[in-house]
Amino acid sequence: MSFLAKPATVAKALLPAALAFWVAHAVLRVLLLFRNDPFGIPFVNKPDWYIFHAVAWDYMWIAASFAVWVVVWAIAKGERYAKITFITFHAIILFLTYLDHEIQRFLGSHVSLALMDAYKDPSSIEMFWVYFAYDQSIPFLQVAVLLLMPPILYFLNKLFSRYLGKKTSLRSFFIGTAVFYLCCWLFLHVIWTGGFRLKKLTPAVNLIYKEIVNFAQKGKNTSLSEEEILEYHKLWKDIDEENSDVVFSKEYPLWKEAKNAEVGEGKKYNFIIVFLESHRYVDVKKSSPFLCSLMNTGLNFSRMHTSGLPTVGGLLSSLTGMPTHSTKMQVTDLPFINMPSFAFYLRDAGWRTDFFSAADPAWDNLGVWMAKWYDKQHYSREREDDSLFWDFASSFVKDSLANKSKPFLATFITRSNHYPFDFAANMPQAEKNKSIQERVIYTMNYADRQLARFVHSIQNEAWFENTYLIILADHGFPLGEKGNSSMGGGAYYSSTHIPFVIAGKDIPQKTDTVSASQIDIAPTILDLAGIEEPNPFMGHSLLKKRKDFALGTHFGYKTLNYGNYRLIYKKDEESMLFENSDSLQTKDVSKENRELVLEMEKMVNKLIRILDFTLENDKVVPK
Q1: What whole-number distance in Å separates Cα of residue 620 and Cα of residue 530?
Q2: What mean pLDDT is predicted for residues 229-249?
Q3: Same structural domain, 242 and 207
Q4: Is 266 within a domain?
Q5: For 425-461, what is each residue's pLDDT tens digit?
Q6: Of 585, 515, 580, 492, whose CA–CA distance to 280 is shortest?
Q7: 622 domain residue, yes or no
Q8: Largest Cα–Cα separation, the chain
Q9: Residue 337 — φ and ψ, nearest 5°?
Q10: Which residues make Cβ contacts (< 8 Å) with residue 523, sequence separation at least 6?
């Protein structure tokens, strides 16, 4: 008993404060998850899917800190200092949590050293005060919460001190704590997981600790040589044979403008752009007759690849004209950077822009990015099936977008063909019991039929003749090919090879066999719209003569199509090389082409290094 006397004394002293801070964090979580963001959009559309994870995670790290304090101060025999240091530490972390939640609501980003560096100007503080005043949930609630936190914590600490008292059985308490900790861990990591949900809910203390450790280990990518920048500029011009008059910026490596650009308002065509969830190119002929019919009548690209995985990577790459960051989860780690997209340029030129998602865009922080570029976002948890989604989309496009005074851009992303490929409405149980390779054919066919219904519902409208219809996938999905059945398992064709077709006014019936990737979509759309503005796109317009080139980042893998080959590269792994004509990647030819592999490895590393530098240092657009 004498051995446990000191830990017991420290534990009893700290317990009321630990419980008070846990309750305070829970209150902050509720105020985050069950409110709108400052712009009137729900921070998350399914708060009931988040709150229990949040409370469990907060319990785990607070319990861990409690255990550390008990052990350290019991050994140090300084129990009278234990409570002071414990409360001081948790008060600091609680304030950082408060700050983290408000930054998430305003910018969609967690608090971070990179964010603090980007917004170190004192004028940023004034900007937040304006946001507080015009917050479309409850103006100035943030100020009230900040002022009320100290007295509430004091009251909770007193309350728990009174009711726990001397009669509290520490043995029962510690057993209960350990059991509840295990239940929380199982709930977060086994029972009801979710990578993006957990990333969104990561406690501020975890984020700051990891960033400090990572920064200490490898520092920040702070410089590029002039040689690297000039090599990239030369390569970009070499690939795009019709843009020799483009002038690049040296300080902002990706930024460029044409010397003889024609100033105009663009061609006022409408754009309907559809991202089909997980639509595998390899299975299109077996599952998607409507999409095949578009391929046979429009401009079909048979060697189109994703530039990012998963959905957030593919969607951001398509919109911004560049792959996503190679190591950071750009959608959640870097949403504060100044970054245009094709939707931004169209809106700036007079288009009405709307984004429609069948899945919750707040789930993986996409809503924050779409708010930068689109006039309005459309999502309802009642319309997550493609059938209901397209019914709503058809009515909204016809009633609220078309035949107005301005052209429109409507971007859609579907959901029903999502892993584990059993989401299609009224899917028979017999189909759900089949292998995943068979299920995906069923759900791809379902997604194709619902898309066909949507297009047929609008194709006879007068305005449709003045509309470009663009269909592609956000990415594919591996189903055992190459022994791989996970999105992060190797960047093979099953994950990266996707359909892409353009149909509309003056679009020829043609199959383009030159390698391309999603970074080419943004410049292609601006080309269709007749907009020639300075931009940071790493891709090229697919309507112009160009060389084989496709670039992507996929869960640590880097991919490059150049010349007649496709490279799949990952640090500390043997690179793989495939001929472009080997669309199923049946033969790795890296061993007989070692010099070419080394050359392409060098090229892809330089390209992605420039990309990462540009994103990390917020040098996409000149200030």
Answers
A1: 23
A2: 88
A3: no
A4: no
A5: 999 999 999 998 999 999 999 999 999 999 999 999 9
A6: 492
A7: no
A8: 88
A9: -75, 155
A10: 321, 535, 537, 539, 540, 541
